[in-house]
Specification:
377 residues; Cytidine Deaminase, domain 2; 18 strands; Dihydrofolate Reductase, subunit A
Length: 377
């Protein structure tokens, strides 16, 4: 079989860790000798063995003379586990195929250099775009200090998110709402605003029992962890009476001034930079990146959605399109700047379209010229 077949298997393994590895990257490893897989593994959770270690343990003595296919450059420093590059060298492997370099400054290029210095034949770049996609949040945070930001919206055929009185339950189907549970589970944090919390009083949690069976298989209850709930509350309107405060997991309140209410231990108040009483969203996302948040799923109303789009902070737009018509009196999808010219309208590229129950799920990324592509990785 070809190198691409084995790397595809390594990527498949890496994808299994998408719920549990954050803030670490998802990594898969396959060991092959005499055209046969002798070991494989993936990074399962932070603090646990890395993909290479799992594969080497499985292979044992069969690793001698084998080729390793790894989705991300092996680490070179001692963190929670020993350096994977050293383990590969001592195992007797003779060849390593790496999908991409690790942009983490502690590793970037050093792992590949160490392997080559030890006499191993190393090639890089095989299926790099696929490897990028698996770790978009981690890679963006390492390169730019920012999380990967997903904006999720549920709308009618005519682009409405609620009827005129604000009622929005439920525009989309139960199948779409269950699919959102999978999105939440893969996120480091869920971001919303005090307006949404006061209006809907949502839990913003992952209901483990509502994940689909395939995801539950790789995300068992004993490894389950709620994403952080981050609420922009610059006017200190959120109090302990709201559901998000008393749900499992952490809640972070983004504020101008801390208050002295009695908060449970799972609640933190974050003081983020404001200008003229207006939140500096870029600075907020930088701070969240510094707190090792890889992926943020935004669930908020039209005003905040429009603000994120206006400021070009959205990496991925996810729309659940319901086969319903609400009419012109309904609430709009987002509130963006008034446009005088059609050419100034924000543009997007479709990356995926699929049916979820009776709805259609659209995944889009901002349309950019080639020179800007790096800003959305």
């Amino acid at each position: 079989m070809s190198d691409k077949v084995y790397m595809a298997r390594a990527l498949e393994l890496a994808y299994r860790g998408r719920f549990t590895t954050a803030p670490n990257p998802n990594v898969g490893c396959v060991l092959v000798r005499n055209n046969s897989i002798v070991g494989e593994g993936y990074h399962q959770y932070r603090g646990g063995l890395h993909a290479e270690a799992h594969a080497l343990i499985m292979a044992g003595e069969k690793s001698k003379g084998a080729t390793a296919y790894i989705t991300l450059e092996p680490c070179t420093y001692h963190g929670c586990t020993p350096p994977c590059s050293d383990a590969l060298i001592s195992s007797g492997i003779t060849r390593v195929v790496v999908a991409m370099k690790d942009p983490n400054p502690k590793i970037s290029g050093h792992g590949i250099y160490r392997l080559r210095q030890a006499g191993l034949h190393v090639s890089e770049g095989l299926m790099a775009p696929e490897a990028e996609k698996i770790n978009r949040g981690f890679l963006k945070r390492m390169r730019r200090g920012l999380p990967w930001i997903q904006l999720k919206l549920g709308v009618s055929l005519d682009g409405r998110t609620a009827v005129s009185n604000g009622e929005s339950k439920w525009i989309t189907s139960r199948e779409s709402r269950l699919d959102v549970q999978n999105l939440r589970a893969q996120s480091s944090a869920i971001l919303s605003t005090s307006t949404t919390i006061i209006m809907d009083n949502p839990a913003l949690t992952v209901r483990h029992q509502e994940l689909d069976s395939a995801n539950i298989e790789v995300y068992p209850l004993d490894m389950f962890k709620q994403p952080v709930r981050i609420i922009i509350d610059n006017k200190n309107r959120i109090s302990p009476k709201y559901r998000i405060i008393n749900e499992p997991g952490e809640t972070w309140l983004v504020r101008t001034i801390y208050n002295k209410l009695e908060w449970p231990s799972n609640v933190k108040q974050l003081d983020v930079l404001y200008h003229d009483d207006r939140l500096d969203l870029y600075s907020m996302f930088l701070e969240l990146g510094a707190k090792q948040i890889n992926v943020i799923l935004v669930e908020a109303g039209a005003k905040f959605a429009g603000t994120l789009l206006n400021e070009k902070l959205v990496d991925e737009l996810i729309i659940y399109l319901a086969p319903k018509l609400i009419g012109s009196t309904g609430r709009s999808l987002c509130e963006i700047y008034p446009l005088q010219r059609l050419q100034d309208a924000p543009g997007f590229d479709f990356t995926d379209i699929c049916q979820v129950g009776p709805d259609v799920k659209l995944i889009l990324t901002p349309h950019t010229v080639t020179t800007q592509t790096e800003s959305f990785l």
